[in-house]
Amino acid sequence: MNKTKLELPDYHRIALVLQGGGALGSYQAGVYEGLANAGIHPNWVAGISIGALNSAIIAGNAPKDRVQRLHDFWDTICSPAVFAQPWMPAQTHVQHDLLGSPGVPMASMLGDTGQSMFRSMAAMSALMNGQEGFFKPRFMAPGSGTPDQISFYDTTPLIATLEKFADFDRINSGETRVSLGVTNVATGNFVYFDSKTQTLTPKHFVASGSLPPGFAATEIDGEYYWDGGCVSNTPLEYVLGDPQRRDTLVFQVDVWSSQGALPIDILTVTERQKDIQYSSRTRTVTNAVHMMQRMRKVFYETLERIPAAVKAKDPWFDQMARHMLGARYNVIHLIYQNKRAEGHYKDFQFSAESMRQHWQTGLDDMDETIGYAPCLELPAEGENFVTFDIHTHKRTSSTQFRDAPVSDTKTVAKKATGARKAPARQTTARKQVVKKAVTPSSSRTPPRRAPK
Question: How much is the pTM?
Fold first, then answer.
């Protein structure tokens, strides 16, 4: 575990952006522990669904208490529902499994098959019994009436859990900005609850995780809201699109990977479909921002060509120049990588063992990121926007999206065509065509008239 404190560049904002993903959200808690160990404390957390719940615990506690409160929260909602014994390899203390063998988990002896079996049992327990302090089966489900009365589970226990582990006065104090993505049931629009503009209550956080048909809509001020993942599962675009542009370091933490193995049966089809649907095309968002930053730079370069005497007469030019290149953004992208034998139920499989595995994976990924300190530097002048993927160690800059200079046109063309030479006959024929095309009309031989 890396506990080296880092001296970051002078970022005005440090944002933690958390995807939705149910039980996979403990990966985000592990990432945050890695940040805290390095002395990095975000001043803006934005989340959807389980990411919103993690945001409540982070923003609702003092920095020194956040990791412990995250542990308390996850230990509560991952309490064993069927069996009291942890059987999976992630356990760090000696236990007895069903066969009475100390320190030898039964799932380990059975390999992937054993892990898959016990994970499916934990998922079935969640479906049948709910999770402690999170949700419970609704009586006479799914019910009817208003949207907040129709679902298979009741999330009322979550209100008390959030109030227990998060201080909502602190959340609304302005110390840490909190943004939550939700879907308006009536309009279908993507909406954000933001502590900068309104007072947040536990119901706002529950609304962000009200994924139908399992969970009912949450009613707030006469409007009904579902999980933000119904429209988009990441609030990255909201953070990057904030009108008050400031130098920003973003830790984008995804729990769904858009890339994965081809499915081989109906169960892996379901798992792959979830991965694709909820990965939210984060790279599509960052690529769009790259292009937007490139357009900003082109606009700025255009302003630079305007004579100084003209710009001096109108303050609009200076205002636009500051707006175009007034901030730099660095997005660090961490993605949970699927483990073997997790299954299509991985997002509602709340066993304590899987929770610890996800948590440790997040901590390891964050430690690896911290170990590559250059990725945290401010983008260089003229770059404005960079992204870094810790899993590929690939860094992408907005300057890579710029058009090639005129002098480099031939080089680009050669790269595009593989620099292959055309056959000699084709080259000769092409020259003849070009020669005919550039011959002045006065020197051409007049066409012969048809005989009368």
Answer: 0.79
Tokens 């049931």 correspond to what residue? 185
**Token duo for residue 332:** 């660090």
Report which of 208, 226, 209 is spatially closest to residue 217, judged by C-alpha positions. 226
**Does the CA dihedral 411-417-418-423 come out positive or negative?**
negative
Contact present, 99 and 90 (Cβ < 8 Å): no
Bridge partners (DSSP) of residue 218 are: 225
Calculate the CA dihedral of residues 26, 29, 33, 34 and round it to 10 degrees. Answer: 80
Within 325-389, residue ranges assigned H as helices are 352-370
Name the one residue in this structure whose structure tokens are 């985000």.
Answer: 28
Q: How far apart are CA 409 and CA 354, in angstroms?
A: 53
- The tally of CA atoms less than 13 A away on the side-chain side of residue 82 is 16
The tens digit of pLDDT for each residue in 289-341 reads 777 777 777 887 888 889 988 988 898 888 887 777 668 899 999 999 877 66
Angle between helices 66-77 and 26-37 (to 10 degrees): 160
Amino acid at the residue 371: G
The 10s digit of each residue's pLDDT in 53-67 is 999 999 999 999 999
405 confidence band (pLDDT: 50, 70, 90): very low
Query: At residue 291, what are phi and psi to the nearest 5 degrees?
Result: -65, -40
Alpha helices in 216-332 (DSSP H): 236-240, 266-278, 282-304, 308-311, 316-324
Sign of CA dihedral 344, 161, 75, 40: positive
Helix count and strand count (H, E) for the chain: 15, 12
CA distance 61 to 45: 13
- Partnered with residue 387 across adjacent β-strands are 331, 396
Q: Measured in whole angstroms, how far is the alpha carbon of residue 426 from the centre of its chain? A: 51
